[in-house]
Batch of 4 targets.
Target 1
Amino acid sequence: MTRATLLLAAFLIVGCSEPTGSGPPPVVETVSPSNGPLAGGTAVTITGRNFSDISSVTVGGTEILNRHVVSATQITGTTPAATAAGAADVVVAAGASANSHCTGCFTYLGLAVHAASPTAIAVSGGSQVRITGAYFTAITGVTVGGVELGNRTVVSDTEITGTGPALGAGSKDVVVTSSAYGSGSCNGCILYVPANVLAPPIASLSLHTCQISAGSASCWGLNGSGQLGDGSNAMAATPVSVSGGIAFKSVGVGGAHSCGLTPTGVAFCWGDDAVGQVGAGTGSSSVPVPVSGGVTFNSLAVGGSHNCGLTPSGAALCWGGQPGNGGTTNTSVPTPAAAGLRFALLVAGGGFTCGLTPAGVAYCWGVNDAGQLGNGTSTNSPAPVLVSGGLTFTGIAAGGQHVCAMTAAGDAYCWGSNSAGQLGKGNFYGGSLSPVDVVGGRTFSALEAGSMHTCGIVVSGALYCWGFNQEGALGNGSLASSDVPVAVVGGLTFTAVAPGQYHTCGVSAGTTYCWGGDRFEELGNGIAQTFLPVPVSGLDSVPLARGGPYGEYSCALTAGGAAYCWGYNNGQVLGDGTGSARALPTPVSGGLTFSTLAPAGTHNCGLTTGGAAYCWGSGIYGELGAGATLFTSAPIAVTGGLTFSDITAGINHTCALSTSGAAYCWGSNRLGQLGNGTGTDSRDPVLVLGGHTFTQLSAGIWHTCGLEGTAVYCWGDWYGRASIPQWVNPSVDIVSITSGGWHSCGLSSGGSAYCWGWNTKGELGDGSTSPSASTTAVSGGLTFKALTVGNEHTCGVTTGGATYCWGFNQYGQLGNDPSPGSPTPVAIQSDPGFSALTAGQDHTCGLTSAGILSCWGDGYYGQLGRGTFGWVTAPVPTALVAAAPPAPRR
């Protein structure tokens, strides 16, 4: 080979090998797969050209793992972990400077939480929660409000279920964490609300009420449009079952229609369908019909003439008037409202709707003539408007033309009409176009609004109401409207409340009570208007009441043994620390727990659950048994340390039965009423003579009687007079006794009634006005299961449940219009059917089997316990339901 040839060959060889770093740069064309989890580890293949002398390959700025240059057109490896989801650049570099960017070629997939359902749950937790989103794999944690979800189940990569933890009120974030896809959150996805805000078991907006009990719906009141759902148009004074046997989990009441929601979320409505509010397109119905559209709801909001339902996703669908879809056309088909908004709670008023988002923000739409939309204007809006003020709420309630809501701290705010003080802002002057504070500084756990009044349950369970009260709907024993919250009387604690148009109903310890107007039987207990809570008939059993003294006042024991008294307070006999008459039950001071009470004319006594005797009131004759003559407005212990099983009191003396059956008495003895053979008063208990073993004692004004076996012995002045026990029933056996003013009565084992003593007004019931020192049969041939004796009248409940009275009737104490009276038994009017009776001086009280304690006769001093003064001639309910049936006068 020649030198020239060698030089040419050398040149050709050098020209075929490009110097390092000086060739064409790499080019990235594709990355496969193009996405993967945040945790990295995705095996990817990068394709392109010029992949030689590769110095680095990065995804999102971080070197890939296990890099392998397969060829000049292919590189493989695994993606590194990233800190944030989204598109990342892929960069391939060759040598010191040549590189290729593939912008956004690989996407890091991050976990996402889209929604939670339901959007509102109770603060007590335990509700089933469904969370939806993306990339729910390798889950390491799911929290609600920072607390782990209970019973977590990853159903799929888009769904997780579990039970919500117990948390405080307010909006809560949902956070889901994955070891592969990072964390995702849904801020404020769930609104935690007090338990009694969600689906209360009772509803009332107008002139009828409905309630759920063990899944069954019952309604009562006005029924002209079939709103009671029983297949008729007849009013019902007591609850009637909604037809169809449908199991409901909640019920709502509108102006003249009602709706219910089944446990599976199917909505039914019944009643008036003038603007499509029944939702079936078939007109009015007196029985439930399914709402059209096949939509499943979590909750319903029933308004005056429209309804809205909340879907599991938080969407609002409405039908009837004011559907809230931006238009004003009525519809009988659920129509989407509030486009773009998700709600946790919905409520409906007279012609408007309001909702809370999961974050607790309030929106309203519809009629706004009184500012009920709360946006600072009085302009109607067919689409949702934001309630002004920047507040967030955990509960909201809509009335006729007003709205009230409460914050997570339990503060109450209201807006809209204030025509009767229903905003609770401390005056009756004008409404408010935006939220204003309810005065009083109380902490509420629930609010509900009626037509023109509002009620709220405070954290202790006590119920307060404010607004229109001309028929007693506030339940405070008054007929005066109030611009500030006033307590509902009776000492009850409530778990739910439902204000109506002129009345209110509430649930306490599983029992439903109603009060206020009863124009259309809306109280549900078959009685007339009452200013105080009385149980609804036929729904639930209630505690029974005990009380009924001789004198011009009454007393009763609550289920816990607390003593309450009301009426005339002469001698501080009510034990409340004052000398003022009380028209409502007032607690006896001292905090003692009693098993029985023995009210008398000017003093009062009771036995504690341990058998210790206490007395209070006037003790000028020693009748308090305290070793001295004194007045006291609080219970004071009887001396001697004796343990008693029964106690009874006369006008100025007291007797008690020891656990051995021996009788002891103390106080005035001028007519021998202490039974110890003397006429000397005693400030301490003295033994009744005769060695008798009694099973029952009963005292009148100036006498006492005791039952030994079937023999009755009396001492003092009862027309007969004796300073030691005298046998008064030589010809008949007696099994129970009761004493009053100047006479006593007893029942035989067969239920026949016998009386003895003075008889100036026919109180012995034998058809005459002649007195008798021994037993005389009550005429009429009636058989009784209970008797009670007043001052100059007697009443009894027959074995058939009818109530009869006889004797003096100047104040209607016989349960009839005032008259001179009757010497024979006459039936009372408007008899609700009593199971027990007790009589005072000129009034009588009785307890029904449904637990309603009612009184009639003289109420001049408030002794009827109905919140007002003055007499009545037929039974009216009192304010207190207590622990045991009223005892006959003893």
Target 2
Amino acid sequence: MKISGEFRTKVLARQWVGGSFLNLGSAITAEIAGNSGYDWLLLDHEHGVGSEETLRQQLQGAGCTPAVPIVRIAFNEIARFKRALDLGAHGVMVPWISTVKEAEAAVSAMRYPPLGVRGVAKFNRGAGFGTTFEEYYTNAHKWLTLAAQIETPEGVANAEAIAAVDGVDVLFVGPADLSYTMGIRDQLTHPEFVDALKKVADAAHKHGKAAGILVQTQEMVEKCRDLGYTFMALGSDGGAVATGLKQNAAILKKTAK
């Protein structure tokens, strides 16, 4: 799949784009998920079990499907951006963005000089191993999607300023971390949590950006949609596998009685 600006354009236009988190580090799962109807896939290399080698394989698996692969890196460090992007990620999700300074650092790591500090190498998968480097170098800052995760009360308080940073495309709520740091762990319908969700969405919209979140139920998909969230992830490959296997095992046990 050739990298282009089509997906980012949809995101910034706040068109509905649905995705899933992939935390198993499996290229086969990435290919299956990519052919299942999702608009985007989040290859989770913050909490997922994959390595740099499996990331390459996952990107290759997703690359032969219609779904756009976004990589969640483990930390807001230049080297982590460079590796994910050179391997062919169409965007990066950055955890734990709470300040403008952190958001600006992430944007800089996404962009080649003179716009940023991303290291330049022509022979990499993202640039077609050199065959499309000039086009990629010229347009990467317009093609690649950056999602900044809002996971702390400080991040919520600074959401409007973070959304104003040029190059931040999505304010993506990490519901587990945010609820825990707010002291209302896993209470995603708590009035204070819902208020935080609204603040993030309003901040994103004010500055022409998208609001995103990972949820686990249809009820939360609908609730967040009503709040203005359009960059939506529902569930994960690990969760789907675990649920399916448990259901099948339960059927076998029930039948054996």
Target 3
Amino acid sequence: MRKAVLQETTTSIRRRRRTRAVSVVALAAGLATAAGTLVPVASSVAAPVPSAPVVGTAQDGGAVIVWLKDQHADLNLRTQSQQRIDAAHEDQNSLVADIKAHGGTDLTQLVSVNAVAATMSADEVQRLRTDPAVKQIVPDSEVTVGEAPLTVSAAAASTPAVASGHSPKCDTKQPQVEPEALTDIHAYSNDPHTPDMANSIATGKGVVVANDGIDGLAGNPNFTRPDGSHVVIGASDYTADDTDEEYYGDASSIAAQGTVVYDYAQELPYSGMPVGTCTFVLRGDAPDASLVDINHNDHPESTSGDVLTESESQIVAGIDAAVTVYHADVLSESYGYGLRPGNYATHYAANDAAVAAGVTVVVSSGDSGVQGTVSSPASDPLVIEVGATNTLRLEAQNYGYDSWANDDITPLSSGGTTPNNKVPDLVAPGYSGQAACNPAASSCPSNTHTVAFGGTSQSCPLVAGAVADVIQAYRDSHNGASPAPALIKQILTSTASDTGAPADQQGAGLLNIDAAVKAARQLPGTTVPSSRRPAPSLIASTSSADTSQLEVVGDGGTTVGQTVNLYNTSTKPTLVTATARAFTEPKQFGATVTENVSAPDPAKPVPAKGADAAKGIDFIVPSGLARMTPEMIWPDPTNGNVLSFILTDPRGRLRQQSYDYGTASSNPARPGTVPNSQRVEIAHPEPGRWHAEIVWANGRAHLQEPPNVPGTYSGTVQFRTVGQHYQIAPASHPVIIPGHSSRAVSVPIAMPRDPGDHPESVQFLATNGAVTSLPVARRTSIPAAGGPFQADIVGTVGRGTGQISTFVFPVSAGRGDLTVNLHTADSSADNGFTAYLVRPSDGPLQTSAAFVNGNATLTVANPGPGLWEIDIKLNLTTSGQEFHQVVDGEVVPAST
């Protein structure tokens, strides 16, 4: 997952557009599709045209995007591409001429968003804002889309990994398939005894998937099919094999061919695996899909220090090309932008135009940790937002464990409820895989032909490949017709496998492509005979902005009525019951353990999993827990020493490894970005004795790089475990759904009393065996009279952004000054927070304030009526003094 972290200012941030669907798929009455069109409404009374708003730094000139008012939403970006291009360019011609005449440069004309990007002076910005055709002028921000080249320091090279002495159990006659994720999501297995693999039904044939950086890998042998045809279409050079490692990973996840055999010992030189023990091939979950470069008709990325960047206008121009030129069916966007209120409206609008045109957009949630860190544009309700789970075979093989357990939420996966009240849609594997690469490429390892690949950058393209499989399966069974993006999303989420994690981490659950393609073949209009239809499914849809989840805001202690439509894919009627599932408050079990940290003997080699940093810890897990969260903290004032822990369960299986993306440092004058905290989540933990190993390692498990060099910290670490149980209650009355029919089910949502976010899920269970988990984003508002609220800050992984917590409260007309006071006890420099106050009705950010000495105050004079929003954002580090940090807030009662 690539993320941009941009500097925040009080005056330069505008409230994120809350997008709304222009195409909705309703499953009632036989899954009829209803489409709406945005129609400009003309006023009959002439009025002065106000100057267009200029957002943030755009007022200073430089790289900006000038939006026009007429967005031509009545012209489909894909099926009426030339008409939309012509209409946009006709609007833009005078604007382009004007910009050039006044010294503007670097012009780019956009279509999905009718806008012109250019570099211009501040005077030109002020002049253009008076043009009655201009809607707004926004900064053309730079976005990080690629990683730094991999380098091996001399210090690291001097401490190579030691062989584990463990010979993994591999079939020497048959290579393993990478990533392990393919079997986990029921896409493909080379084991003939593994049933129910989606690729026996659909392989993405005939579907076009667009992804960044694809043009530069067209010549890699993993992307030439056995018949000699190319996976990449429209490539400028079919010998090219020199793009960024992330793009190789994306392409491999979708459409690698499995034709090149690699040796793990050679491809993972620091793993300690014996040469010739295990081999592998690379395969995608939609190997017959075609790939096209989102950026193919766009400017190349620029290199800035150790990152690859694109401007937002470049990204949008790439979307334009993918949809209008190559008629892509799927857009895979495994990058995102650091969370903060209000930004990237242009990218949101481009994605929405693509969805309205029938293109499914898949976006990674981010790699910043499980609580309150979902990035833009994943928070757009029209896209498919994807988080990540673990697959641990590779680590188990290389660390010396005989067995492992998959499918827990991986610690890096961004989760939580977004400021616009959305949770992830589903999860897919995003840890410990291998992908194609080339030593000559921009950031591939210099010593191997593959790259260790993971994060939600892996989860996102795996889901994009699943979309391709679903489209093919639907077309094959519906006379070539394609399903709408909303229906595809509902199919994937409704057939996902519940992992037992909270709804704001897993969404509907773990991607199950086999169940999804089978469900797609059973929907209304199918040509598949009823005698050949597999196990039934329940396809759920809602009337929320995101039709695959419920998004509810209400007063504490009330019940908010909601309706869910359920479609029974079976030919026979079935009885459906529903339960609401949330979690109890976390409660510590066992004692907090303190251990001393020390560096190992520098003369000894460092093991692949990292050198021991402290004594291992055993702890007993009681029976009946639904969720366990082990946590570790250490008070390192330099924020520069990376530590993690590895968990094994009572059966000795590798179960979790904590994760840290912080930058190490031993210089107090230049502290690092290590957050001094680690935590993992485990669903349904087995009762009995567990073991935690504390190591000098960041948990990234990149076995093509030397293990982390032990740091210099010599203090203590504290380790504890907390557990939770399920809170389960009936969610609706039982309902009988006839075969091949829909029923509307009333689902009352109980709102907890405490202000803030309280995710839950509704579990629908049919007597025919179908199961669907529907995520619910519950946001309890602060009372209109004002009062206290509290944010629980659980930490960060040192990447992208820290946790953001959102609170809302209604303001009535005529209220006096609005004041919000905030306080946190730990006011050290490495516990930085920023607070934001946002106007209602998609208005701009009103004010923001950094915490000083643990305090912050937000004040607005004469606020307008509506639902106002408070956002509290943690910076990248914590002091390591507490496991959780509390921020107390109060909305001061209105003056009389």
Target 4
Amino acid sequence: MSFLIPAQRLHETATLVAFYHPQPSYPVHILIVPKRAIGNLMEISQADQPFLVDLFDCVRQLVQKLHLDRQGYRLVANGGDFQDIAQLHFHLIAET
């Protein structure tokens, strides 16, 4: 799936890819997307443990790299009517 995303990758592992949101709503707006098709948070299973470990490691690395720990940041996953696409993804956002 990562080859379908025409964006500069900030972080990539075997299970996920992170890149700047193409239409950001915040000064720092990064999308973190699993490479495996997962529709939403409700579909996460035991098999997704490697992704979840990578997710939090990725967030930790990006927060450190972008110095977001000083100013604050949020990690958001939308669901239901708030989720625009049928693929689980997380928004790492911050005001700068």
